[in-house]
Fold this sequence. Notes:
Blueprint: E1 10-14, E2 17-21, E3 26-32, E4 36-42, E5 47-55, H1 62-79, E6 85-87, H2 95-98, E7 103-109, E8 113-121, E9 126-134, H3 141-149, E10 160-165, E11 168-173, E12 177-184, E13 187-194, E14 197-204, H4 207-210, H5 216-223, H6 225-228, E15 234-240, E16 243-251, H7 255-266, E17 272-282, E18 287-296, H8 302-308
Antiparallel strand pairs: 1-2, 3-4, 4-5, 5-9, 6-7, 7-8, 8-9, 10-11, 12-13, 13-14, 14-18, 15-16, 16-17, 17-18
Amino acid sequence: MTKHKQPAEHLIGWDGVTVRVPADWSLASVTADEKDGYLRADDEDMPRLEIKWARTPGFVNLTETVDKYLATIEKRAQRDKQELTVDRQAQVISKRKMHKDNLETFAWRAAQQAYSAVWVCKQCDRTVIAQVLGPLDDAELLTTAQQVLSTIRDHPTDGWVTWAAYGFVCQIPEDFTLSTQQMFPGLIKLSFTRDSETITVGRWGMAEILLRDQSLDKWLQTALGKELRRYQPQSEEQQFRGHSAVAFSGERMALLAGVKGFVRHLGGKRSADRLLGYAWHCEQENKIFVVHALLDRANYDLADQIRDRVECHK
């Protein structure tokens, strides 16, 4: 029999969707745009969690949504020559627990088993389909599914979107859009845009090796030199959360950029004219964290707010 998983304890978040999962599950696949998205978490053996979401303003017939979803599961089972059994009455998680008025749950078994929930969020106009999967001999899967599904949140909180992957957790204002992402062993880097403003947050691993023969400030100039050089940043050594840190800032130097910014401000639009950033070495995590933002003069304090919303050691 499969060993029962420990209670959910590891945060994954993307595009306003967050969930807490067992520590041995990790993000395996994620895609999202302004309309829909998909997130999957795996353990070392198999997929364990899938969440799909789509913006669906107006009336949504959840029964038809479940019918269509199960049709895709049935096609997959037929392709794999597996018998599919479905329980549309399975009590997986309640409307009260999920704070949803429009929710249906069901379970299915084929080559594996799954407990699923589908709901509509009135606050963000999203239809969400989520399921926890496991091997057929996992007698505790329903308990695991209830623990995990109950932690799902499907929209920003107080105007902030949580982005979390592989232990890296940050929060970004909801009107910024993800523009680029890098997620590799030893490096996670996410960049966001809003009009002419940009925010970049990142985490580098193996900090002891990266800083073995150089200061944090020197490493920063080398690692982000090409990104920051045009702003001719000035840096200052500081402390942040008890860690060695560097604060840096700079401005666009070209005269033309200043003229464009003046014109944009006359038109009531944002004009990002100042670079503000921070880097710190978290010894407990053996990682370097970096936040830098190109911001309009009205939003300079945003760099501090984002820095304070990046998690490092517990």
